Amino acid sequence: MTHRTLTIGTLARKAGVNVETIRYYQRLGLLMAPEKPLGGIRRYADADVARVRFIKAAQRIGFTLDEIAQLLTLEDGTQCSQARAIAEHKLADVRQRLQDLQRMETVLTQLIERCASRRGAVSCPLIDALRPG
User: Fold this and answer.
1) pTM of the predicted protein model
2) I need a labelling partner for 8 at 20 to 30 A (CA). Which of 17, 34, 60, 132 fits?
3) Structural domain count of the chain
4) Residues 5-24 pLDDT 10s
5) Beta strands in 56-129 (DSSP E)
6) Same domain? 56 vs 28
7) What domain range includes position 8?
8) Rounded to the nearest 5°, which phi and psi values hold at 45?
9) Given this model, what pLDDT does residue 123 score?
10) 19, 36, 77, 122 from 9: Cα distances, Å
11) How far apart are CA 64 and CA 125, in angstroms?
């Protein structure tokens, strides 16, 4: 039997989040709210702390909450190929975003260099480049 002794505040503190984060995860179905006893308060277990920490760890490496929901369905670890497929999709997305960021870096660098070379000119190359048509 799971010992449910933690209040929502204690759960949040142990998991390193705030209480509203716990409630948000519950609204999204990422974390189940325990039954509230008549006249009492909900109590959580250490397994709930581990689940919230799992969610936060997945967010830190770029998974969306929807992707985390998929990973949580595989939480028992027996369907590694499905978890790998989700991670491979995320990696492809990250690589695409990195390419986009590198293109943005190149364009911004060029515009900044053009600005630096146009000292005293009335028309700013950066502003001109961003104007439509």
Assistant:
1) 0.76
2) 60
3) 2
4) 899 999 999 999 999 999 99
5) none
6) yes
7) 1-62
8) -110, 170
9) 74
10) 6, 15, 29, 59
11) 38
